[in-house]
Records
---
Amino acid sequence: MDSLIVLLIPLLPLIGFIISGTLNKQANHTLINGLTCGSVFVSFLLSVILFYQLQSGSAPISYKLLNWIYVGALKLDLSFTVDALSSIMLLIITGIGFLIHVYSTGYMHDEPDYARFFSYLNLFVFFMLLLVMGNNFVVMFVGWEGVGLCSYLLIGFWFKNNAYNDAAKKAFVMNRIGDLGFLIGMFLILNKFGSLNYQTVFDLASHAATNDPTITVICICLFIGALGKSAQIPLYTWLPDAMAGPTPVSALIHAATMVTAGIYMIVRTNVLYTLSPDAGFLVAVMGVATALFAATIGLKQNDIKKVLAYSTVSQLGYMFAALGVGAYETGMFHVITHAFFKALLFLCAGSVIHAMSGEQDIRSMGGLRKKLPITHITFFIGTLAISGFPPFSGFFSKDEILAKVHEYNGGFMLFTILAITSVITAFYMFRLYWLTFWGNFRGNSHQASHLHESPKSITIPLILLAVFAASAGLIGLPHLFHAPHLLNNFLAPVIINAPTLEASASFEIALIVVSLIVLALVTYITYQIYVAKARIPVADADEKGISKWVANKYYIDELYNALITQPLQAVSTFANNYIEKYVIDGTVNSFRWLTNTGSLLIRQIQTGSIGLYIFGIVIGIICMFVFKFYLA
Amino acid sequence: MNIISEVGINSYLWLAAILFSIGVMGVLFRRNAIIILMCIELMLNAVNILFVAFSVMHNNPAGQIMVFFIMAVAAAEVAVGLAILILMYRNMGSVDIDTMKKLKW
Amino acid sequence: MLAEIFSFKKILPVLVFFGLATALYFNFNDWSTYHSYFYNMTTIDNFSIVFSSLLIGAVIMWLLMAGSYYRDENKITDHLAIICFALVGGILMTSYTNLMMLFVGIETISISMYVLAASDKVSLRSNEAGLKYFLMGAFATGLLLFGIALIYGCTASFDLGVIAGYVSAGNLPQMFYVGLILILSGMFFKAGVIPFHWWTPDVYQGAPTAITAFMATVVKAAAFASFFRLFQMSFAGVAGWWIEILIIVSAVTMIFGNLMAVSQTSLKRLFAYSSIAHAGYMLMAIIACNDMGARSLILYAYAYSAASIGAFAFLIILINQLQTDHQDALKGLAYSNPLLAIFLAVILISLAGIPPTAGFFAKYYLFTTLISQGYVGLVIIAVLSSLIGVYFYLRPIIFMFQHSNVETKLKISQSSLAFFALVTLIIVILGFMPQLIIEII
Amino acid sequence: MSESLLLLMLPLASMLIVAVYNGDKGLLSKGAVAASLISLLASVYVLLTFNSTVGFQSVSSYNWIPSLGINLSFGLDGLSILLVMLTNFLTPLIILATVNREIKNQRAFYALIFLMQFALIGVFTTLDAFVFYVFWELALIPIYFICLMWGGKYSGAITLKFFIYTLTGSLFMLTGIIYLYLQTPGSHTFALQSFYTLDLTAQEQSYLFWAFFLAFAIKIPIWPLHTWQPDTYTDAPTAGTMLLSGIMLKMGIYGIMRWMLPVMPLGIMQWQNLVLVLCIIGVLYASCLALVQNDFKRLVAYASMAHVGLIAAGVFTTNIYGLQGATIQMLAHGINAVGLFYIVDIIQSKTGTRQINELGGIAHNNRLFSILFVIVLLGTVALPLTNGFVGEFLLLNGIFNYNIWFAAFAGLTIILGAVYMLRSYKSIMLGDIASPSSKFETLQYNEKIVLSVVAIAIIAMGICPQYFINLAQPALENIFQLSHLHN
């Protein structure tokens, strides 16, 4: 019976997608809500049932739909298994997914293409479930690209505006670049282990030699895939532009679920990563670099969603750092907590934008705490969680990462950078908080009149998420408090012989104390700057020096443009106009020209005078004589 | 006793060859159609000489019979040729072959 | 053979038609018997029968086609007489075993051709064509005779069998080779291959179209038949010596023949040059001078003459009604009278050698014989030149099928349409069932 | 009467019916669609009763020219049944696509299409080299006339170039076939089996390789020999382009699999590297060109060239993944190409222009068309769960097993593919409504049917390709054996 549940979980959102996809514009909203939110909710319930079954120690449940591609050694079938790791991801996806569905019933209320939006959301949930529940790499890849497709559709949802279409196209292409790396990685695995099913691959890998060169290359290729999907250093520019999509989309896809796919993939293949330490080191370094880099950009952003986008990139950097050093459970722990508070922050931002009737620039907001009390409180809880104040979830997961990174040999350098980044994170989060909710209102009169608290359907999810954001830390209490680390032992069966990094108790206490002090200091300083002195960030045009450089996101987009798109365009136009026309076509046409002129020339010898003709004959005979008697 | 064995076939061969080449030269260099006609006849007669010489050398009559054939055919040929020349003269007013240059390329 | 023609005009064509039909019938019934006439100057063996039936068939088709040519002329009897006279010469050329008979055959066919070429008194072009053909023809016959004389000098006989015996005896004198080259050049002239092709374009264009059709089919087929018969029967022994010449000449003919045809705008001259090119292909058959070569020559001759009769028939109609043979006259033909366009397309495709037609099979069979003899290089040249060929054969098709706005409607009588249908049928049948001819020999 | 012959004769019969029938226009097109459906049903029947384990099925051979060893022998094995199915599946779609377009002398048009189908099925089912060559050329004639009579302004010059280009290749193939024919022992035969058992020296095989490769490379087209492709595709009428890109391309690839791999494996071994490099350059070159095209039909032509270059690369890797991937991708590309070109035709017929920059915002008021366009687009971009992905995955895996770097470069195609397809989709469908696209009224009944059939086929093949893989497996297995047996 439970294997049927495994099939039902992805099936329901698919059915929701198909039905609401076919409904035309006039279908009433309650029908669509019932259908789409209902399907996600039922999947949530089913995954909770599975979670409890797994909790009580049952073996992973799997269900084989059909055998998909059987060619030579490749035995691929569409089959799903739910084990500890995927059940957690299931909970996140369906849980937060459901909340966001409810949220968007309110947020997208007066949107003409209502049905289409919800069908895309359901399709996204379907592909995400596919990604998480697949029991071989190709099914994960199916989910992987499917999710990329949905993010393309959802980002470009308001397709009337061409800028949004470009952002959608950019997101899809960037993901595709990552997917190429993933594909090459899959071929390497197939080539080395002869199959793509997790089970066989990990059994074979577990007794392969460490530092085996192919496994390192596999890990690097898979990591490239993760880079594309989870927007790390080279391929992150699509995430900020992806904010062009409606806010629930940013919350669901670009905060909670899709971007964590890369981390899920690395945790799933932890066996390989433990076997190649230097791949792990590369992951850690990239993670740390992204964290720092994105955090600095976040400082100077003035669009509420852009700040949150860069904070997501930096938090993902944290997670990758954890995975790099081998602390897979900590990485997952941070994924869970981050999902809650980042979704919360995005939804609050959504309700702020909703209230400000579309205004996203924080410079023209301020003092909203009176008009939007619930949003204000929930946003404040989110900010506390993300910057790592003790009782909230962010504190536990971030400190655990800091502790684990510290223990990693040679990790001191990484540790310091991460510490600095957490300070910067706290700084820009509070900057955002003060500027939007404190000080006096800077918007125009129309917005002021329109300001009102969001309706029930928006605030309830906010409250729920705030509760989770606050309490999520409990599932992974550090040893200091001698409580069992619930998450670690739940994930134990999935993580195989990972390195044990236990921070000494004294170090943890020191860490907690220091982080408390620093955070208090940061809140005070930011309060002074943005509320007391009310220093409003200056308009983009007249930024100067470094801050100008940072405000424009280090000109990364322009750099990519100059490095890749421009030369590619130039090469193609050159090929199209010159090579195609003259070189290749030219050679072919030259044959035609050759025959034409050749025939015109030869034609001339038919002069028509008989004397010449007979002369020609005589010459012919003479040649024959010469040829026969003197040459041959 | 036949004269050929005394004088030797080569001299006849040379004679015929020389006559033949004179005929060819005539056809090549002369412009007047009638002269060309006559040179062609010369060439045919050179061949006749050769035939007769060889037939006597092998003393088998076939060669001489061939000569008759050639003469008959040559006559027919000349008749037709002259008819065409008259036609040409009536149309072109001259017998010079260079006037006949319309069909070219 | 054929009774002399008496002068009763109306039923004349019908009479001639029956005469030829009976000749064809007799021809077939003494199949594969081997008896010779005129003190074994001529023999009837399968090779000669197939070729003579081809010639007779071609003349019958010619009669059907060239109705307009001889019906409105008053001197109808003379033309038909000369045509039949030329046919006699042709049959002689295909079934001789004696050089003397070869000479007689060649002369009969050439002289009648001189007359026919110049037969259109009014047009200066026909006069010029006649003159040119006469002068060069006579010159070439002179060469041929000189060659025959030298061969006779060495072998002391005209009979091909004796010559073959003499040749196989070995250590031939220098004179023999000189004679051989002269005969070769004479034959080349009759076949119309490159070093000796000068006359073909001008004469074909000058002569009235019906006569050009006759020349392109009957005369060329007879020339190649005699060429093949002579070299296969008598000079096969010394083949290694003359084959090199043939290879070079045929290669040059194919390439230059096709090249010259590319830039022609007048259709008549286009078909003249294409006949040179096809002469090059037939020459290839002679290179492989075994019975397989014979079969490919026959098949090629059949395919080529069928196609060119059809082509020239179309030209006759075109010139009679539009007074021009420029290729633009073909514009939009597919839309004005589609059936005619389809027939002409099939004919052109067969000339170009594209599969479903007889032309393709002939070329294919030719290539097989040559590759089996090991001349792969020559085949490659043949392939390239046939490509050039496709280039200019398709141009009329493009003109016909593309410009659909011209409304010059050619008035086609039912009978000529039936004739075209017959020609196309022959081409397609030969394309699909070539074994009719190949298995004969 | 063996099935293969039945399959062959049906299009011929339908051609005759259409050519003779001169009723009114509407009935004619309906009749044509009905005729093509009959041949589709026949091939479905044959497909069902087909067990692919045994070698060549329902072989029937009638001797055509016994003295030369040429006999009309037809037979079906896994590979050819798939391609016959593709032909019979696409032809009704192609005819249905042109039902409501007004075409001059429709009778000739449909007769030529059926002649084309007859020749294609001939190519795919024949087991005799000479008959293969005859059908190969025969297929060229109808497409030539279709493009000539219903093509664009310059159709004369373009089709002439296309015709001669293809003919050059096929004539060299003819010399190759003749050479092989003469190698067969005794009285020389053209039978396919006898070619398989020939043992030729490496030198001979490399010459033969070039003779055959030239013909197939021009037909596919592989990179340096492709100059005819863009012009002919853009200038031909839609039905012509669909026939060309949908099925005629596959003749080349089928030819390689049937005639080159088993007959001259040593030749292939020698030139494998070079050909793979050419194919991959072709793939990247075509994708780059597709980036900058402004005419949507020309863009789709380059896109189809890029995909087919990948298939050719897959075939030449001579490992089972490559072969299997090529077979699946052939089917997938056939369906996608027909879908895409039909979309181009719809856009052009409704808005009057194909220039990407003039169009925009069609998606606003016709959602069905945009959904179908997205599905076909995803099939071309090889998104998982569409038919493109299965083929592309196997192909890249095949190339990967051959050489990592080739796979890396070949992999770039999925990125570039996404770029140019999405770029064109964006500028045609999304954004603000441009003047021409405002005239875009809703789809007619036949357009809806064709596009939805294509979309369903794309999704269905993506989800369960195993049916086709099982069918082709034994046939590819024995080609694989034969091509490795020799060395």
---
Amino acid sequence: MATETAQAAGEDTFPKLLLRNAVKFADRPAIREKDLGIWQTWTWSQVLDEVRAFAVGLSALGIKAGDKVAIVGDNRPRLYWTMCAAQSLGAVPIPVYQDSVAEEMKFVLEHAGATCAVVENQEQVDKILEIRESYKAIKTIVYDEDRGLKNYNVKGLYAFEDVQAKGRAALSDGAEAIWHEQIARGQPADTAIILYTSGTTGKPKGVVLTMENTLWAARVANRFDNLTENEETIAYLPMAWVGDHIFSYAQSYECGYCVNCPESPETVVDDRREIGTTYAFAPPRVYENLITLTMVRMEDAARIKRKMFDYFLALANRVGEKILNGEPVGVTDRLLYALGDFLVYAPIKNRFGLSKVRVGYTAGEAIGPEIFRFYRSLGINLKQLYGQTEAAVYITNQPDGEIYADTVGAPLEGIEVKVDDSGEVLYRSPGVFKEYYKNAKATRETKTKDGWVHSGDAGFIDDRGHLKIIDRAKDVGHLKDGTLFPPKYIENKLKFFPNIKEAVAIGDGRDYVACMVNIDLTAVGSWAERNNVVYASYQELAAHPDVYKMVEGHVAEVNRELAAEERVAGAQIQRFLVLHKELDADDGEITRTAKVRRSFVEERYKPLIDALFNRRKSSQHIKTEVTFEDGRKGAIEGDVEIRDMTPMPVAGTNRIAAE
Amino acid sequence: MGEILHGIFINPFIEIAGAPDLFVQVLWEGFVSGTLYALIALGFVLIFKASGVFNFAQGIMVVFGALSLVGLFAAGVPAWLALILCIGIMFGLAWGVERVVLRNLVNQEPIILFMATIGLNYFLIGFGEFIFGGEPKTMITSEIGLPTGSFDFEVLGGLVSLQQIDVSAAVIAGLLVAGLAVFFNKTRIGRALRAVADDHQAAMSVGITLQQIWVIVWFAAGIVALTTGIMWGARSDVSFALSIVALKALPVLILGGFTSVPGAIVGGLIIGISEKLAEFYWGPLVGGSIESWFPYFLALIFLWFRPQGLFGERIIERV
Amino acid sequence: MLYRETGQFKTSYSADQAVFPIRQDLVGIWLILAFMFLVVPFTFNDFWLNSIMIPTLIFALAAIGLNILTGYAGQLSLGTGGFMGCGAYACLKLTTFFPDLNIIIVILMSGFFAAAVGFIFGLPSLRIKGFYLAVATLASQFFLEWAFGRIAWLYNYADSGAIEVPTRRIFDIAITGPHASSMTRYLVVLSIVVVLTWVASNLVRGRFGRSWMAVRDMDIAAELIGIRLLSTKLTAFSISSYYCGVAGAMMVFLWLGAAEVESFDINHSFLVLFMVIIGGLGSLLGAFLGAAFIWNLPILLRSAFGQTIDAASVEHISFMVVGALIIFFLIVEPHGFARMWQIAKEKLRLWPFPY
Amino acid sequence: MSALETFVDAADETLLAVEGVTLSFGGVQAIKDVSFDIKKGEIRAIIGPNGAGKTSMLNVINGFYHPQKGKITFKGNTRTDMRPHVAATQGISRTFQNVALFRGMSTLDNIMTGRTLKMTTNLFWHLFRFGPAEQEELEHREFVERIIDFLEIQHIRKTPVGRLPYGLQKRVELGRALAAQPDLLLLDEPMAGMNLEEKEDMSRFVIDVNDQFGTTIALIEHDMGVVMDLSNRVVVLDHGEKIADGTPDEVKSNQDVIDAYLGVAH
């Protein structure tokens, strides 16, 4: 019903919301960017001015309703404005992952039928020009940063400010009224955006979300956490990812909060600290990295400091979460926690720029329960949500006061969730996408006639009404003897160790579970430095006997945990190896959002996997082709050692259920 | 105006012509203080050459040496034994300086080392006064076998008086320099010391550590300081006021260059003689006591024309 | 640990370039100022004001002066005592000629005479560098000492050969002379020092400060990017001497009440140089820390040993201790207290992480 | 590359002409009767074996050394020698073979120092950092920030340069030279001691500077590959004498150069 009132007030599209915000929050900051050393700020009324000029300019360049406008680049104000500008003309913005190579990008552009691209800089312009050689439909290219582009003599290439100048000229000739009419014509059912999901298999699919979808999601989420125009968020995740689109665009437009763009990808942590975000959103990987960073740095701290740190972390682990949840805690513990807050918790939060966080979310992938608890025990209100691009993010969220590390929360108001017989989770809501662009077959496969969407995830709803996700539906497997084998569950346990960056567990249809591990070069490198272990490359470090010994310890620890849980006790890791190279997005081994492409990896490292399941082999030679940053190809080869593990005895019967 | 110019440029010569014996006497006085300046500068050059340290405490080492000698004697130690003990003290000082200061400040910027020697300077003042008391003392000149009294000469119609102690000062200074020259040129350690100024590696190849060299150099400088202290003390009192006078070693060094032993000697004599002449002939024009600043101005004027000093090489700046 | 910087972001260059860009620092400095202005004058007794607060502040100002020259512009000077004397004698002459002129203005004006003298003795710095330059400043030191003692006009032909400070009033409150209360003099000194410190911080943060540091760090490169060496060095000499001059004037008029040549001798030059080195070259904060340390250490020693040993011995011990401490600090942290504070602050900002 | 070609066409105006310059120290002749010119907008390389007099040549151009014979014409003004800061005022700035940064200052302050020439507000305003002084500082800060942005060194903006790795120091030094908005930029072995990646970065910056600001660049470089890629024209010195002058291709095939340089130095 919130939606209905809003529609009545004419707030049913983003351009209309912009017009509202420019009045309602006229002098409040809408977006900031750290540029030239300071935070440049635009208020909502200034944003309106910028968007209007650019939209009218685009219009003058011939962009019209129904056109597709590709957006490529890091998170920058002008690229966000482009979204709204395109929408105001009835065109559809298509954000594209900025680090995709030309070939990947070409697929998206061609599939979407983009005729215009608004890009960040020379690097992207070059890519688009390369694509244009074979895909000639791109008529207009607009760039934000002119560096290196001064002498490009290319047809249809414009600087952002030149397009705006065109727009401003047209505005003074009365184009404003036309623009407002165009906005007024916008309907909730209009396509707001097409987001291409990177997809763990196959070619990307374009998820078509309407204005109504995204706006509904934004409203629900804003109400759910009582967000106001006073929030500060930082936009640092790819603009092509649905999370960023909803958090940094839709929700901001809906409730008027300020979005901050970092100076460069390297300075995000510093920039986040400067801004002091109040509403945070990050995939588990970011949180994992912060913990890794914390632990690695503390390893180098003085002994007394480390002791103090460990003591207070243990204390936080014991009582921190209870205090956050408002449960009863003894006076001594409360006092100690307060001391810990002064000495450890608050400073850590300060270093990571999380001091002011009111609500923080993690999503995209299951977060290790230990990682999740770590943040909550420090007093950060970190919550999990379960979402998908197809749902305009939101499916379930953890409500305050009902945070359980092992669930992803309850369905939000207006969302229905059910689990079918095969164990797959299905959902239905007003945020559910319209279709896969130009892919009716996939749409049919995913979305039922009555609006239910197959999530592709296996899970169940527990007696508290919360959803639990075990794994990708198709990834949960069974060993030959029928024992349950949830790979991600095992991998996440491994990945909690700062030394382990990535893990791939294999066991479906096999005799036992085996595992391939990527060490974390930062953490292990720092360990190597302290222990005078000399190494020249990742490969050399990974093969070091001491490193193996360390990983062996971690695997044994995971086995111990698995052994304690009846349902997965049989899925203990019996053999493992440390991979000779890092899994890399450039090689297609992980996605741009850093998810492992399981089938691809299994194919690529077949010799290693075969050896893992051949008890007689204690090492295996392998040669792997790699792609360097600049696109050149090369190969890494060497022998990879395989270690056997002795499974832990399965503990007594009365066990805590698997988390 | 004319009067002033006359006072500066003409009158002195009239006076010299009028009383040549006075002129010779002044020259002699200048020569003797010059010798002492030269000796202080010499100790300084030794250290600077070998360790690059601008040793501000050289002046205090002079006082400290003399004070130890007088103090030990006053405490009942026989003069000859006191002298030997003093040499031991100077060695201890050199060893201590290397141990405490130099070793810990190796590779620091020159100004830091310079500051450290000022700290050493203060420490020695406090230490010396604490042990031996702050009041001025008389040097035990005759007890250690130095002559007193004077030679009087009839020169150019007047009487020139040379204190015997001054004469022996000059002689001993000469012997000291000669001894050092022999030490540096003829002995193995001496050659190593010379090498260290150019190349630390070369020095170490002779089989002496850098630390040892520092001790030796500071000890050598300490011996020079002790000698200077005895001579100076015999002429006036032994007191820490001398440390201010010792600053005159600076203009001497400017003239002679920081690394040149002959430069130190020549520079010392120039400064000594010129300041006495200036004081005697120009001082009265402005109320006297100009020898407190005259050497510095002289050095400044000199520097303006030859920034690298008398014996220094021309500096070619590179980028 | 105490620094919580989350949420402190700058939207303008002036905010980014502020003296205290971190809010906690800004709050801290205001608290200190409030304490100095509102608490100290009314709670500290005469001994504290006269023997500790006033001289510490005055020497801090002199140390700022020397720091501008040596710490920022890299020109070693041993002539601080002389420049302080210039200020003091100029102040005496000015207040003799203009007895009705506001004494604070007189004190501030007397610095200009020191600046002029500093300018002249800075001229050789064009050709002379490093330790050689120290000789030029020694020349000024000894020449000025000589002049202060020999030229009777400078001390108004007083029989004692010393400066005798006349009583001067503002709004009928005695500021100088025997009738001035410690509190009044403290407040005047504090105000002047605070204002001049602020001015110094403006200078060192801006074009002039950068040029000085450029000349200090690499004079050839500085010249090749268009910095005029002579004028840069001469500004440093003049401004440095101005500060020393004002400090000297305050020393005589607002603290000692009378002074002879010995008040400006070479030992004072060294004293201030120690303050600068121990405090930290190239840091205004260091000037205060160094002055507080070097000035108060002997007082502390005296009160520690005062009862058991005679005064002379305490004097000697304090010499030893100061000397030893200088060496100690140079070994521990050659860049002085300011660097220690900087490191500590850095640690506090990074806490609990070591980096 | 297309960018470069446009400039070669456009550049025909002589920015700097060196005529018959001879320089010696004591008895050693560093440069013997060398003449060449630099055209507006081009990248001009000066190459030659060690001790060929390349750095001395740069030192003569920016007034640090005073030649015994010969004259230099810059922007139409002919001179035999001048003070370095005068050269800077006229629009010549440079970087150094061994990084000559102000080690005690931050990246930002180092580059700000490069703008000293453009700052005119007098001492009085600076005392109170008020009015014009504050205004000036802020304006120049913004300009400097553009350079920082251009050179991609935002993350080290406030780091003391002494703590930076060599490659970044070189970049900061380039920034300091650029801050003066020179007409002629002299780069003394900008890529010496760098790894391949850093060299590529630096080459890109050199091209971008030339491209973006139209700055004329004279460059000493050892790496022949870099020289061939970057420069429009090359002058080759050997033992203080000019032995060749022309486009990279011409120079590469010149027999004297092959004998004197390629055969000897590498």
